[in-house]
Write a structure and sequence with these properties.
The complex is a heterodimer. Chain A is an all-beta fold. Chain A contains no helices and eleven strands. By secondary structure, chain B is mostly beta strands. In chain B, 0% of the residues lie in helices and 53% in strands. Classes of the chains: A mainly beta, B mainly beta. Chains A and B meet through strand 5 of A and strand 5, strand 9 and strand 10 of B.
Chain lengths: 112, 120
Amino acid sequence: QKEVEQDPGPLSVPEGAIVSLNCTYSNSAFQYFMWYRQYSRKGPELLMYTYSSGNKEDGRFTAQVDKSSKYISLFIRDSQPSDSATYLCAMMSSGNTGKLIFGQGTTLQVKP
Amino acid sequence: GAVVSQHPSWVICKSGTSVKIECRSLDFQATTMFWYRQFPKQSLMLMATSNEGSKATYEQGVEKDKFLINHASLTLSTLTVTSAHPEDSSFYICSARGLGGTSGHYNEQFFGPGTRLTVL
């Protein structure tokens, strides 16, 4: 079993839809949770960074962490064609190693 | 925000040759840099962690003699793929973590744009 599971999709939605992306994990030591967006042939771009449980909102993006269920989500409101990309969840335990464990990534396509 | 650059952005080389990839933090000092490899339609796999002034720590299954990492300064780390073979063809991405205060969170990593390596 992988430490982080993420449905690879692809996920196709119409423009303006609400998108829900999620990851599950098995390691209860994870404390830091991140969502990255990666366009084709580019490096990942940090979207959301969350420590421990709770919600965080930034513009059209909302990240949720439920540590009791070992489940994290990213919601995108009013999705735009420019949101079409691969979304990667990443997690890290406390401590100083900085080692990120990534999910497989979900490919999202927002159709005009 | 913090910017990380990589050079070259793509490289094609012959089998058996060595290729060096540079990773630079442009506007902050990076105490730690990470090197990842990404195959098509797959996620990022950590290869090694590089701390300035010390030897890199390699992940299990990554050959340290094949993937040489040097982190000589707080703004530069290099990855050299030695005696490259076609199976080394991949997308190599670095990330950098700054000193406290350079970003909102000490543990935040900033990724470079990646280097696409093709070995013929």
